[in-house]
Write a structure and sequence with these properties.
heterodimer; A: alpha+beta; Aminopeptidase; 2 domains; seven-stranded mixed β-sheet; B: alpha+beta; Thrombin, subunit H; six-stranded antiparallel barrel; 3 helices; 7 strands; 23% helix
């Protein structure tokens, strides 16, 4: 498909930001408070779209977020707070979130010895834009989305060895991912992880974008000034207490991990004893019905 | 006082207002060649003209006669740098006599056509979306 001038324009995002975005910071999550706020934003926005079921924590969390190789990015406005977020999950023995539905397709890429990372949990605070606003027709929504992708891509380039960016999303967002030149990876399927909503999968080969960076306009968005790992040094690292609070006391996600997954998680946190964290699970109080 | 506080916090007041943008689709003042056919209860109107503006939801242009709302429109739009024109369908959302226009033989009515864009798998819709997105970026980044 011919995309007239589209990405030549995107290069403008590298160095300039329209006035309305000037105060918005695009960066990694640095504190637990930011992590919780971002997770709550995803929860709120996904609940509106029926992508998840309500839960008492009002957070959207997964076991993949336990891993230090999972990174959450935010758009933070000085007054409105966190107005957008996206998460990058690096492939690991825990797999990727979208393995749930696209394992065969991902395994084909893995068989080529490609290092994968999944872009997931993209959410913008829709109260800023009103209901039914289509990203492609709304400049501010579009620019916020693209800048989130850019900071994630900067991180991916300078702080990971990712070969292939993959994503799984509701087909109604396909136009946005096509605009970003992602290629088809998997057909329409029902995604339990998105509350049974339909999903499709796409991917972007990083070295291909790099090869074409100078000759093809589409990738100028991603290849401006070389990003520095220094941009990401403040990335949040969970303490043992954070893990305990978020993934045991509040969600029990750690308890749901298989022995193999627990072993891998333990290897990621050699300074903590995951078994001790697991033992902090408060005793389950029998419900009145159970008592009867 | 409020603005002083904003400045002290490094905030841009206009940014705050601009961030809260409830418009569904921004309109772009683009002049693009357009061919139309409009089927109304009083007959069919066909012609060639240029757009006055264009947006995600539809297009505005001039026609030589008053049109009824909800009339079906078939529009062929030629986008810059694209060989294949876009064939779009829509409905007349509104039509009014052009303000300040004195009756002559030339076009005298502005019509707003709302596209019936539906499926993301539709090639035409995809091309249209990418075009609008690119134009929005051009407007805001240059």
């Amino acid at each position: 498909m011919h995309l007239p001038n589209s990405f030549g324009l995107l290069s403008g995002l590298r160095d300039s930001a329209p006035a309305f975005m000037r105060s918005v910071e695009f960066r990694v999550v640095e504190t637990m408070e930011e992590f919780r706020t971002a997770s709550h934003l995803i929860y709120t926005e996904y609940l509106k779209r029926n992508y998840l079921l309500p839960n008492s924590t009002q957070l959207k969390l997964s076991l993949h977020q336990v891993l230090p190789t999972t990174t959450t990015f935010i758009a933070r406005h000085p007054r409105s707070g966190i107005i957008g977020t996206i998460t990058l999950v690096a492939d690991s023995p825990l797999g990727l979130p979208m393995d749930e539905v696209y394992k065969a397709e991902l395994d084909e890429l893995r068989a080529q010895r490609l290092q994968l990372a999944e872009a997931t949990m993209l959410a913008l605070d829709t109260s800023l834009f009103g209901r039914g606003v289509f990203t492609m027709f709304h400049a501010k929504k579009l620019l916020l989305t693209l800048r989130l992708f850019k900071v994630m891509f900067d991180y991916l380039r300078c702080s990971t060895a990712t070969d292939e960016l993959v994503a799984c999303f509701n087909p109604k967002h396909k136009i946005l991912y096509d605009f970003l030149q992602l290629k088809p990876l998997g057909n329409l399927k029902m995604y339990t992880g998105a509350n049974g909503n339909p999903a499709i999968a796409q991917h972007l080969n990083i070295s291909e974008t790099q090869r074409r960076a100078k000759s093809a306009a589409p990738y100028t968005l991603f290849y401006g000034h070389a990003p520095s790992p220094k941009m990401f040094v403040k990335k949040l690292g969970f303490t043992a207490q954070d893990l305990r609070t978020l993934f045991m006391e509040e969600t029990r996600l750690l308890a749901s991990a298989s022995p193999t997954e627990r072993h891998y998680i333990q290897s990621c946190y050699p300074e903590y004893d995951v078994n001790v964290i697991l033992k902090t699970l408060p005793p389950i109080t029998p419900s009145p019905l159970q008592k009867l | 006082m409020e603005s002083h506080e904003h400045r002290a916090m490094g905030l841009d007041e206009s940014l705050e207002m601009a961030l809260l943008d409830q418009r569904k689709a921004e309109r772009l003042p683009l002049t693009l060649p357009l061919t139309y056919r409009i089927d109304s209860p009083t007959g069919t109107l066909e012609g060639h003209t240029n757009t006055i503006d264009i947006g995600g939801g539809g297009v505005r242009f001039l026609v030589p006669k008053m049109l009824t709302s909800h009339s079906i429109c078939y529009i062929v739009l030629l986008l810059p740098n694209q060989q294949e024109p876009l064939s779009l369908m829509g409905k007349v959302a509104w039509c009014r006599q052009k303000q300040g226009f004195r009756s002559t033989r030339t076009t005298s009515f502005e019509v707003g056509v709302a596209f019936t864009l539906s499926t993301s798998s539709d090639e035409t819709f995809v091309r249209y979306c990418h075009f609008i997105a690119a134009q929005l970026l051009m407007k805001h980044l240059r």
